[in-house]
Queue: 3 jobs
Job 1
Amino acid sequence: MEKRILFAFNAVAEKKRRGLFGECASWDTISTISHALLESGFQIWPVNVHTQEQFISFVKKIPKPHLAFVYAEGFLGDPKSLWDGSGPSTLRDILSDFCIPSSHSTSEVMTLCRHKELTYQRLRSFGLAVPLYTVVNPKSFQTVELSENLSFPLFVKPSGGGCSLGIDEFSLVHNMEGLWYKLRRIYEELRETPTIIESYLPGREYTVGVIGNEQKYVLPIIAFPPEAGIRSLWHKRNEKENHWSIIEADDPAFRKFREIAIHTFEALQASDVIRIDLKEDAQGKPHIIDVNGTPSLAGRASLTLMADWLGINQQQLINLIVAQSLARFELEVPPRLQEIIGEPLLKLISYGHEVA
């Protein structure tokens, strides 16, 4: 019998994929994921999630899925849910009500990942390095007072959201006037969203991908040049391939980043896949600045580029994640899926990233 997968996503036309809808997928990416699931022998039930009511109605109408592959970040009809941290958890809570297991991390872990101050609190409690920070309401931008441990330059960003929402050339501030200006801009766009003011880290930025559960595999690490500047959504989508480099497993720096990535995965109790962004301070010490529980699977996304470096294509990457989800819930991995992921899994293992 074919395994049934509910495929939940948020997709909009390319011209709308910015601002509040920057989290949304392109239709090309959705087509690729759908094709990957079909090629693996699944019967898929795709839904572009607009509202909670629509999603619940859809779940009620279809045959009960064996697994939900949740690529959605929230509800298109409620754009705030796409970036304020509530969407991924709400989707998983709905699926849990119907006893449908879901891919990626749990509702609780998604809440941690989608609220940066909660991410920082958890990671710091496990001894992992995060920037010094405080959380403020941007509405009160003119009365903000900084604690003694924070000094300029500072970096300002919304606590919720991904895709670098609210991050631009004004996020790096050097004085109170710049801080007030940036907080006012965030308030004008996102209203009273909790906002992080943190120590600016001037060093190099990195991103690390981890796939797995009990066995964890760290992918080749992407390093961005120091002159990359502030990586806004526009910059991320328009970066040239030669704008970054790979830290290979035989590089002494790789072990350091691998250990941080594995400890982060375990501290958050993440599942299946995460992507971790880090930045070095003036002394070269890496600090975790973001954890993405639903990393992009687009053709030019960081996770896809890491896998491609190992000779693992986009569809194989998608199916590796699906297989991790199925195994975590002790569900049968269909023979066709086993066949598809066999070679990519060997590449991960042979790359030397298997950690018990």
Note: The mean pLDDT is 94.
Job 2
Amino acid sequence: MKQHSTVEQFEKMALVLKNSIEKRGKTSISDIQEWIGCNYSKSKRFAFQLREAGYLQSDNARPMGLKPTDKAKQLFWVAI
């Protein structure tokens, strides 16, 4: 069984946040699934972790849409 290193997790986080910032409109769990190459369940868990950490915000709609927060944008020097 492969262990995920902290660096690999950080790279996935950076990729999701960067792509979410660059994407027009809302980010879906399916988008995240495609970007990080995990199944839907793991991608959803990953998105919820980023939301709980304050990097993504949810619109609480169905299907759920996610947008980067100001905290996420600051990581990439995006004007707020």
Note: Residues 6-22 form the longest helix (17 residues).
Job 3
Amino acid sequence: MELLVSGASPGPLELKMSQLPAPLRSSFHGLKVGLVRSNAVATIRPNIFFCTYKRPHNGRNTKKREILPQNVDLPPILPKRKKKPYPIPIRKIQQAARADKKLAQMGIEKPLEPPKNGLLVPKLIPVAYEVLNAWKVLIRGIAQLMHVIPVHACRECSEIHVALTGHDIQDCRGPTSGTRKSFHSWIKGSINDVLLPIESYHMYDPFGRRIKHETRFSFDRIPAVVELCIQAGIELPEYPSRRRTKPIRMLGKKVIDNGGFVDEPGPASSGPLVMELDTFRALERFPPPSRSEVPRIAQETLNAYEEVRSGVTKLMKKYTVKACGYCSEVHVGPWGHNAKLCGEFKHQWRDGKHGWQDATVDEVFPPNYVWHVEDPSGPPLTSGLKRFYGKAPAVVELCMQAGARVPDNYRPMMRVDIVMPEDEEARFVA
């Protein structure tokens, strides 16, 4: 059907459906349109009639929601006889190095922005204080929950398990695991088994003299998260840090002006704040909570864990952290130290020096994945049903068994939607 409208018009004329004449409304339904609504708009041009439909705006957010997968693969176990993969592609690293070398050959200084030039980033100072406060809450919460929720650790490997009894999965790789048919030898776990102690050297001036193997005992070892917060702007009398007012200057890889070397002032006497930042004897410092307080402490601990991880991610986007590509050593600063303490794969070829590369969040604040247990008081996990089990970070599993609500982003790896078959049914499952 072709509809002609006589009369000239300087432009298109829009009419609501209710404004069209009755004969036109009756003939409108004969047009080849997919859907006719009461809020359709008819546009009339000379000798042309066409219709469009405007979807009503009902105030909904047009941004698509992030759809989490139903299940995800378990975290891979990196081989120890191979270097870790670079977090930044090697081609980008080489491209940036060639650009810096070209500027140095032309005599042009390397453009640096805070904090790469030694100055602080003002907007990240509140983030550092939030991370430090959440870190103290996290240590206190884990220590209190471990009085109520049993945690088991293997005597010979790094495996831990959060349940009433240890699991029966045969994946132990300890020195004498062959005599036990790869079964774990369970003992009572400590807080360092749940919250892995990743430490770093504290430096008064990260851009000053590098740590040598002979001078390594002159520097304190503190948690890497605390050192990252100190370099991001936190002031602790026990761990002073140099605050620059003038930026450093670099020509290629060479520092041509760092404001001179300054002697490190003596640290203040250790107070109670230093003890709150470390896990040393935390189970003795914090008494067991009452049964009614356990769910609240579990939720606060889980929230603190998420806040620490989120804050560390924000800080590491600006502040440089280095990690060894072979072992778990971490150094907070623009370049790594020279202490010869690496004993992993091919350390003889490197004279014990670390193979420094850019660190990831999991290396500074490791999640330490453990097997997820649906029923902590039920039968132990077995090797026959291993492929049906999920995993979760040790802190998340500990808080979940204490009554905390698990965030949705951990549920796919925990595989909470999988129905666990019986032992004799497992071989029939596709």
Note: Residues 90-146+189-366 form one domain.
